[in-house]
Amino acid sequence: MVRAFSKYIAALLVGACFSAPALADDVADFYKGKVITVVISSSAGGGYDTLARTIARHLGDHIPGNPTLIVQNMPGAGGIVATNYLYNIAAKDGTVIGGVQNNTPFEPLYGTKEAQYDATKFEWLGSPSVETGMLTVWKTSPAKTIEDAKAQTVTVGVTGANSTPSFYARLLNAALGTKLDIINGYKGQNEVFLAMERGEVQGAPSLFYSSLVATRPTWLEDGSVRVLVQFGTEKEPKLGDAPFANDLVSDPKTLDLMKVAFAPLAFGRPYLTPPEVPADRVAALRKGFEDMMKDPSFISDAEGLGLQVDSPRNGEQLADTLKEAYATSPEVVSEIRKLIAGNAE
Fold first, then answer.
1. Is residue 129's pLDDT more than 70?
2. Are 103 and 134 in contact (CB under 8 A)?
3. Residue 320 above 70 pLDDT?
4. 76 and 114 in contact (C-beta within 8 Å)?
5. Please, what CATH class does the domain formed by 26-129+268-328 belong to?
6. What is the mean pLDDT of residues 94-113?
7. Which of 121-130, 220-229, 301-310 has the lowest mean pLDDT?
8. pLDDT for residue 5
9. Which pLDDT value is given to residue 345?
10. How far apart are CA 35 and CA 281, in angstroms?
11. pLDDT exceeding 70 applies to what percent of the chain?
12. Which residue has the higher pLDDT, 343 or 315?
């Protein structure tokens, strides 16, 4: 009996030794000669698109079978059109992945009816960086510090009342006590920048650090703008002593509110697969994404295009952040939804 048991254990060990290579071979056989479509939730030419095309040039080198990657733009509804497609329509065999705006995983939590998906069922591959938001004012603004923005009105430009910058402006007013006067109607971020230069508005409520250094690389260095406060899930070291919003708040409820509101920034520019993709292919795609993020060729290519890829997050980290956000108390979720709707008390 002992001899038979020993043979059984030996067989298990031999099987374990061969199972991993066998799985890798299966994945390589599947992807050999295949094309992976990268669905991007933005239009051509922007930062998301540039990143996607950079990833498409490199990711195949890190996936068994070395598939070719092509980019398909699918803009609409702030990323929801593409995310709905990835959840409900896209192939679930590992030949389609997606790059979506960081707000889209949280839209169902925020009560957005158009978001017809369960974000927790996506398989998250990773993100090349986290985002840091900034309340930024032009150099001529009377507001020199965040305390000034609490004591006097600061005009900030946004695209619309329901835009992400408008939401963050309302959040900063509610959480920090700032007096941001939200001016709607600008077509985009560039128009807000021009309005700041002309003196129409004093600042912008939620510039992303990566976006500012890519589009106006000299503004921070030459003092054209001042950062009154930075916010997100972690500080941006390159912003020096700019205060961090979470450090300015002690009330637990407000901190919980900010944690959920800032969770999308931890996603940066996230990549995913549709639900139900075979586990071995998900594992290969995740590993490929992580390996690509360490590849000097990819890093050089990305940084040469002004892309931030210096604080990557893997798929498990994104999934954990999402799970934590969706476990938020109903009371806090209700407050978030009020802020989004623009009717917070």
1. yes
2. no
3. yes
4. no
5. alpha beta
6. 95
7. 301-310
8. 47
9. 46
10. 14
11. 92
12. 315
Closest to 321 in 3D by CA, of 169, 130, 110, 165: 130
> How far apart are alpha carbons 131 and 284 in whole angstroms?
26
Going by C-alpha positions, the residue among 291, 119, 141, 125 that lies closest to residue 228 is 141
Q: Domain boundaries in the chain?
A: 26-129+268-328, 133-264
Asked if pLDDT for residue 44 goes beyond 90, the answer is: no
Mean pLDDT, rounded, of the chain: 91
Domains 26-129+268-328 and 133-264 share a fold: yes
Q: Which of residues 211 and 175 earns the better pLDDT score?
A: 175
Architecture label for domain 133-264: 3-Layer(aba) Sandwich (3.40)
Tell me the C-alpha distance between 118 and 274, whole Å. 11
pTM exceeds 0.85: no
Place of tokens 């992400």: 164
For the chain, give the secondary structure using H, E and C: CHHHHHHHHHHHHHHHHHHHHHHHHHHHHHHCCCEEEEEECCCCCCHHHHHHHHHHHHHHHHCCCCCEEEEEECCCHHHHHHHHHHHHCCCCCCCEEEECCCCHHHCCCCCCCCCCCCHHHCEEEEECCCCCEEEEEECCCCCCCHHHHHHCCEEEECCCCCCHHHHHHHHHHHHHCCCEEEECCCCCHHHHHHHHHHCCCCEEEEEEHHHHHHHCCCCCCCCCEEEEEEECCCCCHHHCCCCEHHHHCCCHHHHHHHHHHHHHHHHCCCEEECCCCCHHHHHHHHHHHHHHHCCHHHHHHHHHCCCCCCCCEEHHHHHHHHHHHHCCCHHHHHHHHHHHHCCCC
Give phi and psi for 155, each to the nearest 5: -80, 135
Output the CA torsion 175→147→195→50 (10° steps).
Answer: -60
